[in-house]
Amino acid sequence: MRVLILGGTGFLGPQIAERLAASGHEITIFHRDPTGAGSGRRFPEVHGDRNKLDESSEDLRRVCADVVVDVIAFTERQAESLVDVFRGHAERLVVLSSGDVYRANDILFRRVEGTIDPTPLAESAPLRERLNPYRGMPIPERYGFSWDDYDKIPVERTVMREISLPATVLRLPMVFGPGVHDVAQRRFFPYLKRMDDRRGAILLDQRTARWRAPWGFSGDVAEAVRLAVENESAKGEIYNVGESGGLDTESWVRELGVAAGWKGEVVTTDGPCPAPSVPLQLNLEQHLDMDTTKIRRDLGYRETMSRRAALEMTVAWDREHWPTEIDPAQFDYATEDAVLSGKSRESS
């Protein structure tokens, strides 16, 4: 098939392009950078502004894509332009969404009060009633849009109601893997740095240690996209993507330690802790792990490699691309040592 990828040179885009190309599909990438930075190999390209998609409509339609994969639909306006440009000019859409559409996300951040939503969250779990979850938060602009306008819920609703252009929505987990240049998006960096700094122990409060988030390796996300592209039965469907099993944070850190060759231990405490423990204002009684039964049953989704291999690949890439700017407040080893010393006295 002819597949057009909107946003093919960031973190996930190149891996999706490579996975689809390896399956024999004809790939074209739409992005704003004429240098093609970030793409692992050269594919035909269309250049333009994702926030002004109509200005590139003629070039995009000339691709004659069977399926359009939108990696970077973050706002309702972007979703509307996606539908307007490709209505009558493509057969299907595959749109990447996020697990932050669930009401559990608002309960976690204490934006709403209410009972805890049980997890793992299925696709039918309640969605947020409040829109624009990151409005007012100090997040740098990305892809030329404001996070004040970000919300995957109206994105999903916009693409799913267009009958003439059937869509598949993939709700992504917290994605890790090689290729992330923004240190804030390196999910395991706070732990890996401590390991490489030869810390004998990584300290977590009990609430952080037991918290479960949805996780997924970037290569596995690319595989989920491939399956959605290739399966006609995916039309009109919404799927959670990610690992099964729901490991808690402590278990993930231990797994990372093995992949990194770290010989230390994870120590938990009932009292407050500095980073990397999650801030106290979050309600960690609300887990976010997602149920991926549906995509496994319907599309035959499976992980492309073991968790150990995925973590080893991530660790190797992070070590080769160590960030140049690190927030020292996130690595308060003096405070950690004081808490660990107190724990040691208690145990003796």
Structural notes for this entry:
This protein is α/β, with parallel strands linked by helices. It has a single domain, classed as Rossmann fold, CATH 3.40.50. 33% of the residues lie in helices and 14% in strands. The chain contains twelve helices and eleven strands. The strands form three sheets. The protein has a seven-stranded parallel β-sheet, sandwiched between helices. A two-stranded parallel ribbon has the order 7-9. β1 (2-6), α1 (13-22) and β2 form a beta-alpha-beta unit. The radius of gyration is 21 Å and the shape is globular. The protein starts with a strand and ends with a helix.
Short synopsis of the structure:
This protein is of the alpha/beta class and 348 residues long.
Q: Main beta sheet: strand number and arrangement?
A: 7 strands, parallel
Distance between the termini: 66 Å
Specify the CATH class: Alpha Beta
Q: What name goes with the CATH superfamily? A: NAD(P)-binding Rossmann-like Domain
Helix tally equals: 12
Q: How many domains make up the 3D coordinates?
A: 1
Compressed to H and E, one letter per element, the order equals: EHEEHEHEHHEEHEHEHEHEHHH
Q: List low-pLDDT spans.
A: none
CATH topology: Rossmann fold
**Portion in helices:** 25-40%
- Principal-axis shape equals globular
Average pLDDT value? 92
List the strand order in the largest sheet: 3-2-1-4-5-6-10
* SS-based class: alpha/beta
> What share of residues are in beta strands?
5-15%
- Name the CATH architecture: 3-Layer(aba) Sandwich
Number of beta-strand segments: 11
Rg result: 21 Å
